[in-house]
Amino acid sequence: MSMSEQLEFAWALLLNGISIGLMYSLIALGFVLVYKATDAINFAQGEFVMFAGFIAAAMLAVEGVPLIVAALALNAFVAFGLSAAMIELLKAEGLSPTQAVRPTRPRWAPGHSPPP
User: How many domains, in total, are found in the chain?
Assistant: First the structure.
């Protein structure tokens, strides 16, 4: 393996690691958003992210769709999953839209008791 091939492989590994880390951080942010808004753990958005990943991989492998189209489809599925989770929260918990959008308020905010 020549030096340029090794460098190319190292860059590919670095970019793959960064992109996977960014996906993990977005998924974790979705879990935190839902948990802070409702005090309940909800893994529904994770299922949508996994489904979107399978769809994007199938589009790339089977259909020969360009990478940008698969990436746009992946983003659309992720947005759909997050919005579906928010709609579920609004319906099930009776939250107002401002409570669902501002999940980082302290638990001892008005209407909540301070921690022990």
Answer: 1
Using CA atoms, how far residue 102 sits from 89, 95, 109, in Å, is 13, 11, 12
Query: Over the stretch 44-55, which tens digit does the pLDDT of each residue have?
Result: 767 767 777 787
CA distance 98 to 60: 38
Per the structure, the complete domain to which residue 41 belongs is given by 3-101
pTM equals 0.44
